[in-house]
Amino acid sequence: MKMDLHWGYNNVRIKKEDEWKTVFLILEGSFEPRVMFFGLTNSPATFQTMMNDLLRDLVVEKKVTVFIDDMMVATETEKGHDEIVEEVLRRLEENDLFVKPEKYVWKVREVGFLGVIIEKDRVRIEKKKVQEVMASAERYKRCAEVLRASKLL
Question: How far is CA 56 from the centre of its chain?
Answer without folding.
Answer: 16
